[in-house]
Queue: 2 jobs
Job 1
Amino acid sequence: MAFNAQYARVIDNDQVEQWPDCFADDCLYLVTTDENHRQGMQAGMIYADSRGMLQDRIAALREANVYESHRYRHLIGLPVVLKREAGLAEVETPFMVARINRNGTTELFATGRYLDEVVDSEADGLRLKQRIVVCDSQSIDTLLAIPL
Amino acid sequence: MAFNAQYARVIDNDQVEQWPDCFADDCLYLVTTDENHRQGMQAGMIYADSRGMLQDRIAALREANVYESHRYRHLIGLPVVLKREAGLAEVETPFMVARINRNGTTELFATGRYLDEVVDSEADGLRLKQRIVVCDSQSIDTLLAIPL
Amino acid sequence: MAFNAQYARVIDNDQVEQWPDCFADDCLYLVTTDENHRQGMQAGMIYADSRGMLQDRIAALREANVYESHRYRHLIGLPVVLKREAGLAEVETPFMVARINRNGTTELFATGRYLDEVVDSEADGLRLKQRIVVCDSQSIDTLLAIPL
């Protein structure tokens, strides 16, 4: 829970350059919908399979001034540990994300669950080996930019 | 908190046949409004006083294909323990529930609090002897179907 | 987390006379926006620097029957401890607040984060020496009345 609190904080407080540090070097970050996920599709609205790709993504968003136009507020729920092995855990965690637009309006932007594989390396603490963001709605804004 | 995480998960992930297992055989599940609750009314929008009644309810919802039309996402807050005795606790816990409609729209559907009596039986772990779902709004959709 | 659960409960359950007890005698309670906060402005939509001021505020709201017209539901997220010293901790915690209007409508009213200084006095348990409520949106309802 402390890990997820930190994850949400770097995104919502506009310190998103620290967001890739939540992941292992070799990782999978995928944003998809429940419908696609149930059909076993690996494609998603966002796909990255290394920490370097996550860093590139953030750099591109900064250049495009995406963070000027809106911001997010994550509320991350209680985790359910599905499996635990030596140094590795599979965890499912629900979330709600509000989007606060530059004009002041606030809306419930996305709901869903994280399907995680978390590794515990003694040197770096907890890291995400996998975070599949399964959105409940089929129609997540395709302009989706800031990480969920 | 782990119990509530599991409670929300079986509902939101469409494994609602497991939802009655969260309750003791002899139980009270009531969905009501804050106004009705303060007036001491026992009637509610949903009333069940045994685990069998909860199972019947789920079976009926399945037959009516209710789960095709929309889904929920629960975010359950931090519990306040009001009373603790041998093997029994009274707990109050806030919640928000979003409804994701088939057309893709997401709305904040219900907010409120759970008033629980939780029993700890060594054989089965935690079970709800009582869950009164007190909704904040007077006008919860009367088509209310999926459990809160 | 137990402290924040209790904080939200007294506000949302209309026991708001107990809300000032969450604060130290000598305290700062400030409701502001992210934009103002980043510019270092101390002014805010609500400002109080003693527990007595908080009590006065609640008394005024009661007289004006503010609690008749709407209510809140807080969902408080996971805290991030930023600093910990003897008897004092700096903590940041995200929140979402829904407003339930008398006509039954529910809306996502405010999102943001609490910037807290929490003191642990042996006699009274945890108390807020400072709670700065940093709202994400610039346009929080100026009729803002019930504490966030």
Job 2
Amino acid sequence: MKLYDLPASPNARRVRMFIAEKGLDIPKEEIDLATGYHKSPEYLKKNIMGRMPVLELDDGTTISESHAICCYLEEIYPEPPLMGQTPLERATIEMWNRRIELDLLNPILNAFVHGHPMWKGIREQVAEFVPICVNNANKSLEWLETSLEGRDYIATDTYSIADITAQCTLLMGKAVGVRPTEQQKNINSWWERVTSRPTARA
Amino acid sequence: MKLYDLPASPNARRVRMFIAEKGLDIPKEEIDLATGYHKSPEYLKKNIMGRMPVLELDDGTTISESHAICCYLEEIYPEPPLMGQTPLERATIEMWNRRIELDLLNPILNAFVHGHPMWKGIREQVAEFVPICVNNANKSLEWLETSLEGRDYIATDTYSIADITAQCTLLMGKAVGVRPTEQQKNINSWWERVTSRPTARA
């Protein structure tokens, strides 16, 4: 097994943290965007989207999309469980993971893509869209704060992939000025709790 | 079990088609947006996001997010399998489902939300964003066309949730002018194949 990695990508980080939480040692190949290798015919055979991360199995089969890679690893290496242990737990974690992805990570990524000079010339940027995305992300912090009341983790009583996704999301949020307010005590305590894990810098 | 449904929603349709493919008969309650019930404290307890669909279990537990509902149903009613039968199949289907969601459904939904009069006053609209979304969706049809070469279905040799997601996505695409060209023969044959299933109108 081998992971094609992009250190700066919040999606690749999700997979690295997942791997670290599983205690796995999967070799990584860091892709240097400057070489254009990710757009080469060789790499596009691994992932037609030309993106990272990609997990390559020993027989050359490749899996892309961060969450799909995690689903695979969870089945092959079930301990410790990060995606639930019963059908209801698994569905609940999936639900929270998607809420974080769709309503918090998506607007933060869009604010970055449409507002950051790094993306100029790579993607068509609509500056007017940026404050709308930031506003939507801030609204999502409100339901996250409410939902974390009396809870240690986002989806269930234990640390899960939904927490990993939210950690990577809030790290990315800092780059576009989305961060919890001092009043959002539940998010702030959760943040202290999850970032004190040894895997938080994976 | 009961499904809180919104007939016009492409996400609710994904769940209805999934249920129909499983041959299940789950009672549905159609939510009328005009009544505002989906924003009432009672409904927000079922789904803090105030959206449909929501699956309510007999003990009152609720699951929201279309894909999470399907994950739950797949485990409880495994036949016929729509999300794969081995770890690799499941990861492959998850990968394709996400590619369709993130790179085809998302831009189509954004084109609709930012361009359709229905959303005026509900969401801040950025007209300039619409053609970018349409263009991105059309680019995604290109990799979909390439990927369907020599294949009957999107993710594996059998019909899966990735096909369901793509069907609902292309139906929605018509509303914003995103549709395969005549030259995209693989997508067109796939479309004929999947829309001839009795569940296609669920």
